[in-house]
């Protein structure tokens, strides 16, 4: 059980770091204009909502599996 938790934690941290780098490069390569960071902020917030929803769904499914 402990091994599974550690593997899931490492995988989660790896995916989070990769997603943060992707978001940074989206911001870095945007056209410079007024308020250009808000588009990236919206993308980041939208992806946070989606990942939170998927996380809650996975937790609920794991409780049903037990």
Largest sheet: none
- The whole-angstrom Rg is 16 Å
Number of helices: 2
In percent, how much strand structure appears in the residues?
under 5%
Number of domains: 1
Mean pLDDT: 79
Low-pLDDT sequence parts: none
Note the overall shape. Answer: elongated
Q: Structural class of the secondary structure composition?
A: mainly alpha
Keywords: Membrane, Transmembrane, Transmembrane helix
Transmembrane segments: 9-29, 41-64
What would you note in describing this structure?
The chain has 66 residues and is an all-alpha fold. Helices cover 85% and strands 0% of the residues. It contains 2 helices and no strands. The longest helix has 29 residues, at 37-65. The radius of gyration is 16 Å and the shape is elongated. Keywords: Membrane, Transmembrane, Transmembrane helix. The chain crosses the membrane at residues 9-29, 41-64.
């Amino acid at each position: 059980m402990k091994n599974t938790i550690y593997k899931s934690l490492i995988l989660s941290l790896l995916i989070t770091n990769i997603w943060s780098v992707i978001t940074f490069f989206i911001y870095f390569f945007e056209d410079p204009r007024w308020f250009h960071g808000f588009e990236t902020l919206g993308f980041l917030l939208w992806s946070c909502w989606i990942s939170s929803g998927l996380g809650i769904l996975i937790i609920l499914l794991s409780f049903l599996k037990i």
